[in-house]
Specification:
With about 600 residues, this protein is α+β, with helices and mostly antiparallel strands. It has nine helices and 30 strands. Helix 5 packs antiparallel against helix 6 and helix 6 packs antiparallel against helix 8. Keywords: Membrane, Signal, Transmembrane, Transmembrane helix.
Length: about 600
């Protein structure tokens, strides 16, 4: 009976050890049903440390935070419990049922995957109005507005969209990032430069606000009916007041990330009237002038002149074709060279476009160029107008005439002269040759031949030596792990350098580089990467205290950078400091 009890206890111990050694890698979400205006948290948890973590693409969501990394390492009753988590904060892009796809990670040479999770996104829900909630305070004090100049334009009439960010004096904005840029389908669009814009004072809903013009866009609708203007969406990092105060009675500020959108805008595009539309109308809408000119009106045959057809004014200059010219067949006309001198501002396109034709007359005489007309729709009078050029006469002074052409050809054929032959016409051809013998050389039994013959036998000992060194290196499993970790450190440090200017990506890559460097240098695992343990091991390696302090401060910066605004100068300083500290540890460690 005692033997059975011992066996049962042994089986329980084996099962517990097997369960403890089993790898777990799973995904968890904060909720499986949320409104389109809510946020979703996704955690990827594992019970053993791994490398090369790859998150899903989050195709139907916008990543507004993360990845945030946390490590938990506890001991209870002699049993070690380890947990590592990668966290992301997501904002849904639209309503629907979406899937959080698989994430992957490499643990002890094996690839593990999470199970896909379905999430339902519903219509926007009412968020409780809690005056102490930082998110509610942010939503009430920051607004992104799209101002449309005309919501009922004609086809091809210019309208403008100006995006303004209104910020209450109660909060302060640290940084903005465009999450979704509008695509102006069914419009011809051009953005206007808004650099060096200054913050202005204004009002929003009757209250005092500061505002900044973020974007100005000129649109020309290319279809009639109701057209949608997609919204501009921003992710804003800001500081908002909390309900806590410091020792001097001042309000303490807390950081908040918020996604704001300008909202969809709909405009109703009216078609151009059919009544009175000219047959040669090509879509010009605006206020224009029309001009046809030539570089000269008198010239000789085979000389050239330039004929220019030009339209200038304010309107959709780039969106219609200039009228074609029709000239007599005796004038040779080449394909025109199109020139545009157009500037775009909030009033639309302004400037001129022109077609320049090269014309070459063949015979003398006078050639009238008929009048050319141009039609456009005038927005001021809401009617069609036609502009016509005056007739131009080209006078060709000298050259052959059409009537005498045949007689001149006949005269030329009767006055042909006999060809005079020259006896020395082939004098340039050489008839005498000089031959010389060519001595043949053979490759066989030359010095090069013997070198190439003996080369394989000389390479055999070298190959044996290199093979032994490679086998010795392959057998050094511990050394290979160190070299691999060192290679990863260099790789992640290089990735951090490439990510300068992108706060989240830069500090994630920098932190990975520092961790992998310690794994290679101190022969420790990621689970042991605590501040005290790092300080203890580096001190044992006789590394100076100032260098150890700098290394720990860089790791701390990587953690704090996710929650505080960081500029490009600070990121460059942290990168230089990390490179310098790693170099000093290499020189001092013994």
């Amino acid at each position: 009976m005692q033997i059975k009890n011992y066996i049962a206890v042994l089986l329980v111990i084996i099962a517990s050890a097997f369960a403890g050694a089993q790898v777990k890698f799973e995904a968890k979400v904060s909720k499986k049903k949320l409104g389109v205006n809510e946020r979703l948290r996704v955690d990827f948890e594992m019970n053993q440390d791994g490398d090369n973590f790859n998150p899903p693409d989050f195709a139907n969501f916008t990543v507004i935070g993360g990845p945030n990394q946390s490590v938990s390492n506890t001991w209870m009753n002699g049993v070690r419990s380890y947990k590592k988590t990668y966290s992301y904060f997501l904002a849904p892009k639209s309503r629907g049922i979406f899937t959080i796809n698989q994430a992957t990670i490499n643990i002890d040479g094996e690839i593990y995957k999470t199970t896909p999770i379905k999430v339902e996104v519903t219509a926007a829900i009412d968020i409780p109005k809690d005056p102490n909630d930082p998110n509610y305070i942010a939503s009430e004090n920051v607004h992104l507005v799209a101002e449309v100049s005309n919501t009922n334009p004609f086809l091809n009439e210019a309208i403008t969209v100006v995006y303004k960010l209104y910020v209450s004096p109660k909060v302060s904005v640290q940084s903005t990032n465009e999450v979704d840029t509008p695509r102006y389908n069914d419009f011809w669009s051009q953005n206007i430069d808004t650099q060096n814009q200054k913050v202005q004072n204004g009002t929003y809903n009757g209250e005092d606000y500061r505002f900044l013009v973020l974007r100005k866009t000129v649109l020309y609708p290319q279809k009639t009916g109701k057209l949608k203007i997609e919204p501009l969406t921003l992710n804003i990092s800001m500081s908002v007041p909390s309900n806590r105060r410091n020792i001097f009675g001042g309000l303490l500020m807390t950081g908040v990330n918020r996604t704001v959108s300008a909202g969809n805008k709909t405009i109703n595009v009216k078609p151009l009237p059919e009544a009175g539309k000219p047959s040669d109308f090509t879509g010009a809408v605006g206020d224009f002038k029309f001009d046809v000119s030539t570089s000269k009106t008198e010239l000789d045959a085979t000389e050239s002149l330039q004929l220019k057809v030009r339209v200038s004014g304010n309107g959709n200059l780039k969106l219609f074709n200039l009228p074609k010219v029709t000239l007599p067949s005796s004038l040779e006309v080449y394909e025109p060279e199109h020139t545009e001198n157009v500037k775009t501002n909030l009033a639309g396109m302004q400037g001129s476009i022109s077609d320049s034709y090269t014309v070459v007359p063949q015979y003398k005489g006078k050639y009238p160029m008929p009048s050319i007309s141009f039609s456009y729709f005038d927005l001021k009078t809401k009617s069609y107008k036609r502009l016509s050029s005056e007739e131009i006469v080209i006078n060709v002074l000298n050259g052959p005439s059409n009537s005498s052409n045949n007689n001149e050809n006949a005269s030329a054929s009767n006055n042909k002269q006999a060809v005079v032959y020259n006896d020395n016409q082939f004098a340039f051809i050489k008839t005498d040759t000089t031959f010389s013998s060519i001595k043949q050389s053979h490759f066989f039994k030359t010095i090069t031949f013997w070198y190439l013959l003996l080369l394989p036998f000389l390479l055999i000992p070298l190959a044996i030596v290199l093979g032994k060194q490679k086998a010795k290196r392959d057998a050094d499993v511990y050394g290979n792990r160190i070299r691999k970790a060192d290679k990863l450190a260099r790789k992640y440090l290089s990735s951090a350098k490439k990510s300068l200017g992108q706060k989240e990506a830069f500090y994630v890559a920098l932190e990975k580089a520092l961790h992998n460097y310690l794994k290679a240098k101190l022969h420790i695992e990621t689970s042991e990467l605590s501040k005290d343990r790092i300080t203890e091991l580096l001190a044992e390696k006789q590394v100076e205290n100032t260098v150890i302090t700098d290394f720990n401060s860089i790791l701390q910066n990587c953690e704090l950078a996710r929650y505080t605004p960081i500029d490009n100068v600070t990121m460059q300083e942290d990168y230089d400091k990390a490179a310098k500290t790693i170099s000093l540890i290499d020189k001092q460690a013994k």
